[in-house]
Amino acid sequence: MELLTPFFGIFTSFILFYYRKDFNRSNLYLALFFLCSNLIVLVYFGLHLTNSPFWEGVFFVQFLPLSFVIGPLLFFYVKYAVSENKTIKPLEYLHFIPAVIVVLISLPYTTLPFSEKVKIAHHIQAVTQDYDFKISLFSLKQMLFIRPVHLLLYCIFSLMYFKKATQKRLGQFGVLPSNHWVIKRWIYTLIGLQLFISCYCLLDSYTDFILNNDFGIFNSKNYLRALGCAFFLQNIMLFLFPKILFDSISYPDVSLAKNRAAQIKKEKYPEINQSIAAQLENYMVTSPYTMPGFNLSKMAMDLQLSERVLSNYFNTELAISFSEWKNNQRIDYACKMIAEGKADKLTVEGISQNVGFSSRSKFIDAFKERKGTVPSAYIKQFS
C-alpha cells in the first residue's frame, strides 16, 4: 500500500507535463519537482519495505543526487511562476552543482559490479544499519545529513524570492495579478510541506547520526510513515488547486509572450489574429461568458478553432490568459448590470449567477480583485 504514494505522485507529475501550456514554463519545473520528490519516496520504500537484496542494490546511494535536485527545482518553479522575465540564465545552472558533486562522489560505489552493490547495500540495510559508509570524500552518513539542510535552505530562499517578487510587482504596477491569491496559497502550501519534510529529516539525522540516539518516534517505520503522509498530502493538495494543475497558472510571462509574438509576425500570423478578433466581435454579442461552465474548449468549439490557436491569441494579442479574460468580461458585465439598474432586484448571489460564476464567494473575490471593493459596496454607489 505504501508504494501507492510515490506511484500516485509520479502519475501526478505526468498530468502536469501534459497540461503544460506553451506560454507557461512554470509547470515544467513543478512536474520535474514532483517527479524527483516522488522517486525519492520510492527509493525510501524500496530500501526499507521490500526486504529484497536486488532492490536494495538498485536504490542504495545511486538515487542520492536526486535529493539535491528537488531544492533547485522548487526555486525554479517559484521563480518562473512569479517573475516577469522567465528566461533562464546560464549562471542559474550553478544551482545543480551540489547534485553534480554528489554524482561524482558516488562514482566509487555506482561503478562497482551490481553483485558488489547488492552485497554492500544488503549488509548495511539488513545487518548493521550503520550508514557511516565511506564514499570518496564524504561518508553516506554525512551526505544524508547535508541533504535536508540543502532542501531547507532552498525552501527559505524560495519563500524570500516570492515575497520580494510580489513586493516588486506591487511597487511597479500598484496592483497584483488577479490570480495572485491562488498562487500565494499554493506556493505557501508547497513550501510549508517541504519545510516540514526537511526539518523532520534533519531532526531525525541529528538524533541518529550526531546524538546516536533513537527517540522512539524516529524509528524506521514511523519515519517512513511520516514522510509518506507528507508526500501523499503534497500530491493530494495539488488536486485541491485545479488552476495550478490544469491551467498552468502563473504571473504573465512577458519574455515568452514577446518572443512568441515575434515568431507569429515572422510566420505571417497577424491575419489569423485579425480573423479571430473579427469572430470574437460577433461572438461576444451573445455574452457567452455568462453561461455556467464556459471555458476555452467551449469557446474553441463555437468558433471552430483549435484550443492552441485560441490560447495563442489571448497570450500574444491580448497579453492575458483566457481565465483572466473570462473573469474580466464577467465582472464588466456585472458592473454594466448594476450601472443600468438591472441588478436592483437581485441579490449578490443572483448577480453572480447571471454573469456565469459558479458561486457567490468566487464572484465576490474576483470582483474585489478587479474593482478594489465588494459588490455590495459597489451597488450602493448606484443606489
Report on this model:
The protein has 383 residues and is mainly α. The protein is built from 18 helices and 2 strands. Helix 2 (26-48) runs antiparallel to helix 9, helix 3 crosses helix 6 (114-128) and helix 8 (180-210) runs antiparallel to helix 9 (220-239). The radius of gyration is 26 Å and the shape is elongated. 31% of the residues are buried.
List keywords for this structure.
18 helices, two-stranded antiparallel sheet, 383 residues, elongated, mainly alpha
* Mean pLDDT rating: 79
User: What is the spatial order of strands in the main beta sheet?
Assistant: 1-2
Strand content: under 5%
Spans with pLDDT under 50 lasting ≥5 residues?
252-268
Q: How many H/I helical runs?
A: 18
What is the strand tally? 2
Helix content: 55-70%
Q: What is the succession of H and E elements?
A: HHHHHHEEHHHHHHHHHHHH
Helix-strand category? mainly alpha
Give the C-alpha Rg. 26 Å
Give the biggest beta sheet. 2 strands, antiparallel
**Measured distance between first and last alpha carbons:** 61 Å
How would you describe the shape?
elongated
Quick gist of this model?
The chain has 383 residues and is mostly helical. It contains 18 helices and two strands.
Task: Walk me through the topology.
Elements: H1 4-18, H2 26-48, H3 53-59, H4 70-82, H5 97-110, H6 114-128, E1 134-135, E2 138-139, H7 140-173, H8 180-210, H9 220-239, H10 242-247, H11 254-266, H12 270-283, H13 296-303, H14 307-317, H15 322-339, H16 348-354, H17 360-371, H18 375-380
